[in-house]
Design a protein that fits this description.
The chain is of the alpha+beta class and 264 residues long. The chain is built from nine helices and seven strands. It has helices at 2-6, 11-22, 46-65, 85-101, 159-172, 182-200, 209-226, 234-247, 253-256; strands spanning 25-26, 32-33, 71-74, 77-80, 130-132, 135-143, 149-157. α5 (159-172) runs parallel beside α7 and α7 crosses α8.
Length: 264
């Protein structure tokens, strides 16, 4: 809050911020819990205030103290690029002290020094990958414009993101929607699938193929429950869905990518 006070002359704004921070929280059982600091989890204003605080606690501080270290931040997750292990260790110690001054602390598990291994950096270090914003960054085999393969430190959809998507697809309970047509299912879930492809398909799109094929599996189970002739006949249902996909390849976003149903 001190950083905010130094950069605003509006006392009413400070009063509103203080009220947001100290407002009591009502639990699901109706009980009210008093608060004196922090921001309520899931609060509408919480992301705005968190970003405002982190701007001064981290962004401005990094620009002032470490102008030669490129960095990026999203909410309370951030990355900083260093040129050596010694520089990374020094920055980590200084950042830990800075956050402590601001009443914050580093995550004991997520905070780590990672070696970005590729064709130009071939040393051995214990940690050579990390997750950030749903992507896993690690050494991957790539191909340049001339068709030559090389090892590049690049992002692709993380395993945890793929697991979260598959869990959400299961929550749709498509096999139980036998009252819907396949066109209805496309309208209900097509936008969500397209959003995943737009976000996670920017880099190494093939990393999300297994997760997208999981949707085809759920559509097969839906067909088995909807049509009596396909009941307890998985291969027959897969053939049926495959014919539909070939006839209407634009029905689902991942079908447009070529991930059509196939017989397993």
């Amino acid at each position: 809050m001190k950083a905010v006070k130094r950069h605003t002359d509006n006392p009413w704004l400070l009063l509103y911020i203080e009220r947001w921070i100290t407002a009591p929280v009502q639990q699901a059982d109706g009980s009210v819990v008093a608060r004196s600091k922090g921001l309520p989890q899931g609060g509408v204003i919480s992301p705005v205030l968190s970003n405002l605080f982190m701007h001064y606690a981290f962004d401005v501080w990094m620009g002032r103290e470490y102008p030669n270290c490129p960095w990026c931040r999203y909410a309370d997750d951030g990355l900083a690029h260093c040129r050596s292990l010694a520089e990374a260790q020094q920055l980590k110690a200084a950042l830990e002290e800075r956050l402590h001054e601001c009443g914050l602390e580093m995550h004991p598990v997520k905070t780590k020094i990672v070696y970005c291994k590729d064709d130009d950096r071939r040393d051995r270090y214990p940690v050579t990958s990390f997750d950030f914003l749903g992507y896993m960054f690690r050494a991957r085999r790539s191909k340049n414009k001339r068709g030559k393969h090389f090892i590049n430190f690049s992002p692709a959809m993380s395993n945890s993101a793929g697991k979260a998507i598959r869990q959400e697809v299961r929550s749709w309970e498509m096999p139980k929607r036998s009252d819907k047509s396949i066109v209805d299912l496309s309208r209900m879930f097509g936008a969500k699938i397209q959003g995943w492809i737009n976000y996670y398909g920017r880099f190494y799109r093939s990393a999300m193929y297994m997760t997208l094929r999981h949707i085809n599996g759920k559509l097969v189970w839906w067909a088995m429950r909807k049509f009596k002739k396909l009941k307890r006949h998985r291969r027959r249902a897969e053939h049926w869905l495959g014919r539909v996909a070939k006839k209407f390849p634009s029905l689902f976003p991942h079908w447009r990518m070529g991930l059509l149903p196939t017989v397993g």
